[in-house]
Structures are given as C-alpha cells and as structure tokens.
Design a protein that fits this description.
The protein is mainly alpha-helical and about 190 residues long. The protein has one domain: dinb family like domain (Four Helix Bundle (Hemerythrin (Met), subunit A)), CATH 1.20.120. It has eight helices and no strands. The longest helix is centred in the last third of the chain and has 30 residues. It is globular. It starts with a helix and ends with a helix.
C-alpha cells in the first residue's frame, strides 16, 4: 500500500511534536536558561523556535495565511513574536528565552500540530509537488524582513512544497531538539 505524501508529512510532524514533549519532560528547570556551550542559543529559545518555524513555514511561507501565533491565546503570551527567531542577536534570543514558559509553548505546539494536520488532509500530491511561495509570502510579511531570513530561505525558494515541509518542519526541527538534549547533558555535566 503506497503512502500518500501528505500522510507521511503529517507523520513527521507528529513525531516532532512527540519529541518536543519528550525533550520538555527531560529538562530540569535550570536547563532552560543555561548556556552550556559558548556561542549557542539558550535551550528555551531553541525550544520556542521549533514550533515557530513550523508555524511560519506552513502558514506564512506556504499558505500565505496568518500564523497561529497571531491568534488568541498565543498572541498575548509574553513569548509571542511575529517571526521565528532567525537572525536574532544573542541579546534578543536570550531575552525571548527568559520569557518562554515551556508548558505554554507545548500547548501552542499541540494546537499548531492539530491545525497543520487538518490542512494537510486538504492538499493533494500535486499541491505538494508545486513550487513553494515562501519568498513572495516573506516579502509581504514585514516581520521577516531580516537579512538572515533572506539568506536562510534562499536555498528553499521554488522547491516543492513537500521538500520545504520535510526540511524545515522535520529535519530542522529534529536537529534542534537533539541540540537541546545535548546542551542540557553538557550543562549538567559541567555544573
């Protein structure tokens, strides 16, 4: 039985969401704001960045629609930002990390997973094969007018939607979740 591409992508997103919960469950309170390795972001920032990347990629980047973060109850959270954190200075990232409430970010990630899963049920393989509109949509969103964003999306411009979803929403997210785990382990070992 052949698997439909949208179901495979939904499975990847579900796996990322489960891993997000696993990572949160394995963290100690002091892990979130400890910089275990110089030059890295604080785990709380990276944890927030994972669902924000999925939201911005799917809703702004692919659909050209408002992001979930722009709706209640998320928009009123202290950690709500209209972009995904790419190009933040260390100071900006650290400030945001200090505002992150991991349980709230998990609730946001769960709501986002549900929203994206519903959207994936509505799209065809042809739509997933089509070139993405990420660049055009980012140009229409002032929050994404950062040089680092332009550089980050450059290799993804015009790629098929399925590839953009797999790279940013699965591979990129999974790598960051592993990064959080490793930094927490290093931090615990050095304190």
């Amino acid at each position: 039985m052949a698997m439909q591409a949208n179901r495979l992508i939904a499975s990847q997103l579900n796996a990322v969401n489960r891993q997000l919960h696993e990572v949160a469950g394995g963290m100690q309170p002091e892990d979130w704001l400890r910089r275990a390795v110089p030059g890295t972001n604080l785990p709380a920032f990276t944890f927030w960045h994972v669902p924000r990347t999925i939201d911005s990629t799917v809703n702004m980047g692919i659909r050209g629609a408002p992001e979930l973060i722009a709706s209640e109850p998320w928009v009123s959270k202290r950690w709500a930002r209209p972009e995904g954190g790419t190009g933040y200075s260390v100071e900006e990232a650290d400030q945001l990390a200090a505002e992150v409430v991991p349980a709230e970010v998990l609730d946001y990630a769960d709501a986002l997973r549900a929203q994206v899963s519903q959207w994936l049920k509505t799209i065809s393989d042809e739509e997933l094969e089509a070139p993405n509109g990420l660049l055009e949509h980012a140009r229409q969103s002032p929050a994404y007018h950062r040089p680092a964003v332009a550089e980050a999306i450059r290799p993804l411009v015009g790629q098929p939607v399925w590839l953009l979803l797999s790279i940013t929403c699965y591979a990129h997210s999974w790598a960051h979740l592993e990064e959080i785990n490793l930094l927490a382990e290093v931090g615990r070992a050095t304190t």
